[in-house]
Design a protein that fits this description.
With 254 residues, this protein is α/β, with parallel strands linked by helices. It has a single domain, classed as NADP-dependent oxidoreductase domain (TIM Barrel), CATH 3.20.20. It contains ten helices and ten strands. Helix 3 links the parallel strand 5 and strand 6. The model has no long low-confidence stretch (mean pLDDT 96).
C-alpha cells in the first residue's frame, strides 16, 4: 500500500483508509453493527494488508472498536482520525480527552470539526477552533481540520488558514456531494495549493456507484485527482477490503 504525505501536515497516511461510518450517526454505523470483535478484526485484517489509516467519529460509535483493534500494535504505525460535533471550547477539549480514553491512546492523529453546514463557521465557532489548537500544542492531537456538508462551508475551509485537514465528499457522479464534481475539485485544488491535507469520502457514493459501474472506475476517478491525497471507504467484509486494496494498489502502480 502506497504511503503518502497528507498535504503539508507532516502526517503520512496509507492511500486507502478504512472508514467506520457508512450510514453512521447517533453512535452507530454499518461498521459498528459488525460488533466489537467483528469490526476490530476487520480493521486488523485491513492493517495487515497495508491499510494504516483508520477513520472514525464520535457519532459513529467506533472508538471502542479502534481500541480493540489497536491491541498489540505499535500505536505510531496507525493514523487515526476522529471527529467532534461539539462547538464550544470547553466541550471540544472535553471530547478530545474522552476520545483518548475511549481509544486508549496518548494522542489522536487528526481531529475534525464534524459536519459543518454554515459558510461563516469560523466566526461562529472560534472557541472550538482555539480548543483544538491548544490540544495540538499539548501533543494530544497532531492536526486539526473539518468535514463539511455544505458547499459554502467547504469554500470557507479552503480559505481558512487554521484548517490543516479536510475530509471532502467527492465522486465522479456528484452523489451525496456539496456541489458538482467540477466545483468541488476546483475548491480542493485551492486547498491543496495552501498545503492542506485532503482525503476523500463518498468515493463510491454510499455504494450507489457500484451498482452502476465497477468500483474501479469510481476509485480511479478520485485517485487521478492530484489534489486528493488519500481516500476513506467504509467496508464491512474481508472481501471488500481485499478488492479495494487490489484496485488501489493496481492504480498506484499504473
Amino acid at each position: 500500500m502506497q504511503i503518502v504525505n497528507l498535504g503539508k501536515t507532516g502526517v503520512r497516511v496509507s492511500r486507502l483508509s478504512i472508514g467506520t461510518g457508512s450510514h453512521g450517526w447517533g453512535g452507530k454505523s454499518d461498521q459498528t453493527a459488525l460488533g466489537l470483535k467483528g469490526l476490530a478484526n476487520l480493521m486488523r485484517f485491513a492493517y495487515d494488508q497495508g491499510i494504516a489509516f483508520w477513520d472514525s467519529a464520535d457519532q459513529y460509535g467506533s472508538h471502542r472498536h479502534i481500541k480493540e483493534a489497536l491491541k498489540g500494535l505499535d500505536r505510531s504505525s496507525v493514523v487515526i482520525t476522529t471527529k467532534t460535533v461539539s462547538r464550544t471550547g470547553e466541550s471540544v477539549e472535553n471530547d478530545v480527552k474522552r476520545f483518548l480514553k475511549e481509544i486508549r491512546s496518548d494522542y489522536v492523529d487528526i481531529v475534525l470539526l464534524h459536519c459543518l453546514t454554515q459558510s461563516d463557521w469560523p466566526s461562529r465557532y472560534p472557541d472550538a477552533m482555539e480548543a483544538l489548537t491548544r490540544c495540538k500544542e499539548q501533543g494530544l492531537i497532531r492536526a486539526h481540520g473539518v468535514s463539511c456538508h455544505d458547499y459554502g462551508a467547504f469554500q470557507t475551509a479552503a480559505m481558512t488558514k487554521w484548517v490543516e485537514v479536510v475530509l471532502a465528499r467527492i465522486n465522479y457522479a456528484g452523489v451525496s456531494m456539496d456541489a458538482s464534481p467540477a466545483d468541488v475539485i476546483r475548491t480542493m485544488e485551492q486547498m491543496a495549493a495552501f498545503g492542506k491535507g485532503i482525503y476523500g469520502m463518498k468515493v463510491l457514493g454510499c455504494g450507489k456507484l457500484v451498482e452502476e459501474r465497477e468500483p474501479r472506475d469510481a476509485i480511479k476517478f478520485v485517485m487521478e485527482l492530484p489534489c486528493v491525497h488519500a481516500m476513506t471507504i467504509g467496508m464491512t467484509s474481508e472481501r471488500e477490503v481485499k478488492e479495494n486494496i487490489a484496485i488501489v494498489n493496481e492504480l498506484a502502480h499504473e
